[in-house]
Design a protein that fits this description.
The chain has helices at residues 8-13, 58-78, 128-144; strands spanning 21-24, 28-32, 42-46, 83-87, 103-108. The chain is of the alpha+beta class. The chain is globular and about 50 Å long. It binds zinc ion (ZN).
């Protein structure tokens, strides 16, 4: 296992720190979030230490997302929830706090609203020209990147938000 000595989640994987582990297989682990947004809020992580989605290889990511689905089904059933929100943040700008790739699986209930997690970000008004620029930027990046995502990710340019949002 690839681990990081200072990583909280790696310590949970190594059982150095206790956690309410609900699922474990060869490459993934799932445990209850200690600050649950709802009962049944589970974190699903790869056992190898990857800081974020940009670092993990495709094959381990496939195994991880299959575990996320298993936990989504189990948590929804177990909590008799009406729906499930799945979220995953990369980088401080996105609100990532623990630098070990993780998916949040959060059971959701009709009585809550209902509101998607996306609702925390207000929608942005964009002109057709702006949408066209965004499309070009994303498609340009897709062409530059490795087709499978298995090889090294292209260096990310640190630029300011081009639209000033
Ligand atoms: Zn870690």
């Amino acid at each position: 296992m690839v681990d990081d000595q200072n990583c909280l989640f790696c310590k949970i994987i190594k059982k150095e720190i206790p956690a309410e582990i609900v699922y474990e297989d060869n490459s993934t682990l799932a445990f209850l979030d200690i600050n649950p947004r709802n009962p049944g809020h589970v974190l699903v992580i790869p056992k190898n230490h990857y800081g974020d989605i940009f670092e993990i290889n495709d094959s381990e990511l496939r195994e991880l997302i299959v575990s996320v689905k298993r936990l989504a089904v189990a948590s929804k059933d177990g909590m008799k929830a009406d729906g499930v929100s799945i979220s995953q943040s990369n980088g401080a700008a996105a609100g990532q706090v623990i630098s070990h790739l993780h998916f949040h699986v959060i059971p959701r209930f009709e009585s809550e609203g209902p509101q998607g997690l996306e609702a925390i970000l207000p929608t942005k008004k964009m002109t057709n020209e702006m949408l066209s620029e965004v499309k070009s930027a994303i498609m340009g990046s897709l062409q530059n990147g490795p087709p499978s995502g298995e090889s090294e990710a292209p260096a990310r340019k640190k630029e300011e938000d081009p639209f000033g949002f």
